[in-house]
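Two quick folds needed for the group meeting slides. Do the first one here.
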Amino acid sequence: MTVGRRSVAIVAALLLSVSVIMSPLGEAALDLSSLGHTWNGYALALAPTVPNMRDSHRLELARDNLPEGVRMHYVMGSSELSSLAPQNPVTWLPSHSSDFVVFLSGRGHVQSLSHAIELAAVAPLLASPKVTLILSPQWFVEGGVGAEAFMDVFSYSYFEAMLDNPLLSSRTKERILARVKSLGGPELWSRPDRAFESRLSVLRERLKTNIDLRRQSKSVPRAEARIDAVDWTREFQLAHDQGVAAAHNEFHVADPYYERYVKPNLATSKGSMADSTYLASPEYGDLDVFLTVAREVNVEVMLVSVPMNGWWYDYMGYSATGRAAYYDKIRDVAAAAGVRLADFSDKDYEPAFLYDIMHLGWKGWLSVTRACVEFESAA
């Protein structure tokens, strides 16, 4: 082969590689590793990890491989998804339900804006056009989500799919673009010369997801009983007993958490939130973006209002009056948007509802799971 022909062949091969990367064939090629593998949709729904949280492939596999007769409900949240309480759906549902599972999506730092982008991306893939968003009061600090925290969980895959969703208005897309830019997000999509870099990022996320899913594909045993056979009264009593037995301190948080995170900081924490508020935060704008996205992509939403730990917040100087004002504001947001609200704000002095000073615990997760069942079952 002459030098000229060799050069032409090399250029042709490069062009072919670029065309594959820039097209859906790129993801399809990576997904070939899934062929011939036996996937358990029920198990995949309950397996959120850092590698697979940035790509929709877990959702597609979970949806397409659900056992017959199983309903799946999409639940978005943040660090409470890793709660150690045995009522966390990861642990509780497989031993209590044969026909209902929640798809858990999120981790620490994933807040309203990240979930808005995600919702626009996954809406066409949902098994049911309903999602639940668990709101943490701590999201609504005066500064809102930090730039570093936002970029730590940023998904190129979801962002690209959000931009491609034809149901999302140009105005909403522009609003998201501006907010992402304000948090230091990449401007790859406004730079044609960097589109290739964007696609490489998407494919890297898909590759990491596929590798992770192969590792997380072990099946989990499922209970024989249906979810409507659960004795909720008995389960709540058990959750109460477990929570009370696990917390022997004035703040009613799990003892290991207390010893590691609370006790060493008691002196500096006392009265530290006397001048704080959760009423003025950019997070409310991000939440409005999420609710706008849901309306435009035709997805019903249930917001979950998680209570604060009343004993701990009293100690920090954030009064019951201040907390009530925040709870009222969340009610107003839900009412204005016309969305369902699972309101647990009256539980801030209830033992065993929270696992620690902020995360859902024994009775808290049980309450949220039951609310999800009722929401998914509602006409």
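Then this one, please, same format:
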Amino acid sequence: MDKSLDVLLSQLVEEIERVEETKHQFGSVMTTIKNKIEISKFPSITSNLIDLDFTKKIEATSLSGLKITGIDGGLVRRRFRSMDLVVTRGIAVLFQFGPEEGPIVDFFPDPFPEPKVRPMMLTLSGTELEQLASLERVAVELKVALSVLDEFHSDLILIDGSLFYHPRDRPQSGSIVYEKFQEVLALYKQLYNKAKKKGTTLVGIVKDSRSSRLTSFLGDILPHIIRDPSVFELMQGIDYRWLLKISRDCDILDTFLEEGERSFVFNYSSELQINSNSLSEDLSNWASSIWVTYLKTARDDLPLRIEFLSDGNKNSIWKLDKALAAILPLSWQHPEYGIPTPILEADTRAKITMNETQLIIDRLMALSGLTYTTLEKRRSRNPFGGG
């Protein structure tokens, strides 16, 4: 092997060791001081926070009598010479918990729904194609959620992913994709309104969040906290500013959150760069109704980002913690993987397999009379084995 590669890998190992050692030291200090941190002393950030507990222990509740639904969507995109095919599937898995026996499980619309197929012509740019594919998947999920609210009673609906669209999914207003984006926004609003009307708690479970909003909050308050001589002594020699700069929220919280513990709660709207052209007023109001916290559901897994649709009354924090208390026992299947069971089951059934995709392609060719040579891009049919 090339010696220069060995040198690069050795440098990478040193960097990883530096990160892990700094995280360990930082986490030890934060574990020591976290119960003494008073967020109320920092008015510059409390305007974006919902409660003033820096961390809070959540006690798991009994699931007996609860009806909890998990919703997820699957997406496969196949590229051809003259078009792209987007294949999507949405499913809801409904768990009804009895007093002792295991849950009764139902599915909507079916245990394995037929995937939906949409052609996309290549007049769209690469970015627009990505946006349209993502929006198609989100739309399928939201329509399933709305149907579940219409046809079933659920105490708690868990959606795999955020309760708000991702900024990268927002096309330019002049784009052909913008009409689809508007449709998705309308579906979000319908979902928020219907969940509140039905009295159903709506929660987004974000498994692999890349947000760094909470680390930004920590970066604002820690310089003030370490003015305390006792904390300064503990933190001395730890480059916490560097660590916060390179870390996501989940990575930092994993250093000091204990199993069954949540972080402080902040407003989703504090993460948005809102201006007069970015969001309609009513959607901005909905963003303010979404609260965000992180919950450590498994001993050896990263915390989950939890998004909660609040009804804005004085009992909202109690309702959030009640939802978290139900999510905990749903997530205890394995100490290294703390994903709630309804989400795991929905994810498994929403995935679109290669076999299913190939069946759709084969059927397309049979009905159209086209061949692989006609359909596939040149790179996909290289007879010499290239990628």
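Slide caption for protein two: Residues 191 and 197 are 10 Å apart (CA to CA).
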